[in-house]
## 1
Amino acid sequence: MLTPRIWQNLPSYGHPRPLTMPSTFVQEWQHADLATFQTQIAPRNQPAILRGAVAHWPAVKLAQNGPEALCQYLMKLDNGQGVDAILLAPQENGRLFYNAEMSGFNFARKSVSISSVIEQMVRYSHFANPPTVAIQSALISACLPGFLPQHAMPLFAPEAAQKIAPRIWLGGQVVTPAHFDESENLACVVAGKRRFTLFPPEQVGNLYIGPLDFAPTPTPISMVDLRQPDFVQFPRLHNALEHAQIAELEAGDALYIPSLWWHHVESLAFFNVLVNYWWQETVPSTATPLACMLHCLAHMQQLSPEMKRGWRALFDHYVFAANGDPAAHIPAHKRGILATASIAPEH
């Protein structure tokens, strides 16, 4: 077995922010506690950077001097449970996306242990142009159960924390295109550095979303590469960037992402670890338009005004084609449900 002590010549990573990006940064909060989070931060329904929110975590302190000590710690806690890991070829530059024909994705997926991924990253640290490997959304209670007792989340009440299952994301310089979560999200950087570019739900029409039922992430993704935006192919992106907010996080920082906010995520170091928390029940799908309307009346009326505005933007864009054909930028053979829906704009 390899040991994390032989990491070699870790390159200095970090994509520069494109000149076309806005200079609006997410509002920061220092030393936020449970009461502040519940009464001042979450009710705003705006992204929020919580500086140093988990700086006291043992894993964060171990990561301060490089990856070796943290890797050894995680490998000792690893129970060998297989987790979802992905591998991207060097030419993909870490970006999760479709393959050239959109018949599949540009990465391979395999179930392996966390220790196996760490060992693989150690080997790649010797490469001049390494592939990208990462663990995506692994349930911590299933693979690193000993991690949880030492890393309590101070921004959740104890009774609420018991209902939330934290997940770990570990790997190299991965770029996840803009997507949204139906749940509230609290993302905590343990090691490395991350950059989030966030857009309010109403910008769905300007982000050129790919197939609704075929995506490399659980929810649909933007077809735009924000690191190298193509404004000829995606001209409305200019409008989205006017509303974008940037969050750059160091180890120990956390980011609150409200439900339905689009977020593009870049892991900027050679070795990155993030723990996130999702909370909020999802609504199951329905069969007919009338059933859908009745279901929405029964299950969406109690949503907050901000949540209703977010879902209105999605319904307007996809169901009522308020921005024109939402699939116009997707190859015809990959439009999925958007092709069978025969969507026509309202007049």
## 2
Amino acid sequence: MSTHIQGQVIAAFGRQYLAELPDGEIITCLTRGKKSDVACGDFVEIKPTAEAQGVIESIRPRDSLLYRSDAYRQKIIAANVTQIIVVVAAEPPFSDELLARCLIAAYDQKLEVLIVLNKCDIADKAAAARLQLAPYYSIGYRVLELSATQDASPLRPFLQGQTSVLVGQSGMGKSTLINGLLPEAQVATREISTALNSGKHTTTHARLYHLNADSHLIDCPGVQMFGLHHLSFGEIEQGFIEFAPYLGKCRFHDCHHTHEPNCALQQAVAEGKIDARRFRLFLDISRPGSQ
């Protein structure tokens, strides 16, 4: 008879994790060895070692895995999510490139996408941010405008039936959004800190909250970089969803869309069918060594 129990990782702190068991009990877990690829959202097999403690022995097959990487290492963000919510704000300015990179990673993992434009109560700044997001509206991305300090509830319908991961640069207001949706989140954060005997992890690692039985939200630290070293040129190309009608129509099958003659993408940009700023982002992100 197996002594293993199943659980879901609801908080990840380096090699230390909190796992929720089917009966709702939360236990502290470690992994074997120094290297761990366990992610918040993972379903795992746990070997109990003491009261409310265990060792993660294996990870159950994942439906999705969102992570970023550079030439040297990868950083797992969340597992088994169905939707990515990228939070940008009217102020401070947000990075076009970071947004584009998040959307490429989402496409690779077949995740639904929602862009949240926060701090829309700052009217003049919101107008500029809307302009910056115009290409995303036009190619079909869902964009929700709100002000989390006033009312986070417009986001709630978009969370139903999804396991969403909240991603964004520091300063975009993710924490305010979480607290607006889940006033009990601060309590949960304190409980996590108590379980781990630490207060310093509260805003630096991913954690999962249950909104209801079938809607869940993973909050993760603010990101300033989102490396895509694990994706090929073709995968990055496909992540720019507006390119789809033109892919495979260049004169050269291995066209990199930089200087080659009869490039279908360059032609589409010249004709105004592809946004020139998005195209420049693609060239920057796909350039060797830039992923």
